[in-house]
Specification:
single chain, 193 residues, alpha/beta, Maf protein, seven-stranded mixed β-sheet, 5 helices, globular, binds inosinic acid
């Protein structure tokens, strides 16, 4: 069985990725490999941050790994919060960030937005990038209690519910992270079968 480390401290992301992983692969968490250092995230792009996180871990352990970086890009705000999604109003406070975005969009009718995930994979010392996008729109108020981050205010264009009103399996059908991760899995299966 192939083993690979997911470089994240976000339990929600780990749960989502594990739910998408075929049985022939095993996703290890940072605590599974006893890695407890803070992972830097200082780049102005999603690609840069995903690579920075994966390289930080790989440089210190030599283990095969991948990291993701995700942004919510709102058309009417010129792509904001984008790479600053985690710290838009307040560092990693999902509720404050969501309320800040809704307030900024109070008088805006164009609600179009998309989630974009970039995954950086480092395997056998080589680097690869995979992208996943889901288009949709921002609601006027939060709906649903599932998921995390901006899930309660994002409706993918294929559905009428927010991600937070869906089960994990339903979100997986459309999600940016699923779309990027399935490209990674296809790549690994083609390279190592
Ligand atoms: P990160 O930098 O990739 O950890 O993600 C930045 C921020 O985007 C997170 O703090 C969340 O607020 C948000 N985010 C990332 N992925 C998702 C998702 O799948 N649903 C909703 N919000 C997300």
């Amino acid at each position: 069985m192939e083993q690979i480390v997911f470089v994240t401290n976000n339990e929600h992301k780990l749960k989502e990725i594990r739910s998408l992983t075929p049985r022939t692969f095993r996703i290890l968490s940072l605590s599974d490999v006893n890695f407890h250092q803070d992972i830097p995230e200082t780049s102005p792009t999603l690609e840069g941050n995903a690579l920075e996180k994966a390289r930080f871990f790989h440089d210190r352990t030599g283990l095969n790994c991948f990291a993701d970086d995700t942004g919510l890009e709102v058309d009417a705000l010129g792509g904001l919060p984008g790479v600053n999604s985690a710290r838009f109003a307040s560092d990693h406070d999902y509720y404050k960030n969501m309320v800040h975005l809704l307030e900024l969009m109070n008088n805006i009718d164009n609600r179009k937005a998309r989630f974009r995930t970039v995954i950086a994979l480092i395997i056998n010392d080589k680097e690869y990038l995979f992208e996943g996008i889901v288009n949709g729109h921002i609601t006027r108020e939060p709906r649903g209690n599932n998921g995390f981050g901006y899930d309660p205010i994002f409706i993918p264009e294929e559905d009428t519910r927010t991600f937070a009103q869906m089960t994990l399996q339903e979100k997986n059908q459309y999600s940016h992270r699923q779309r990027a991760f399935s490209k990674l899995i296809d790549f690994l299966q083609a390279s190592f079968s």
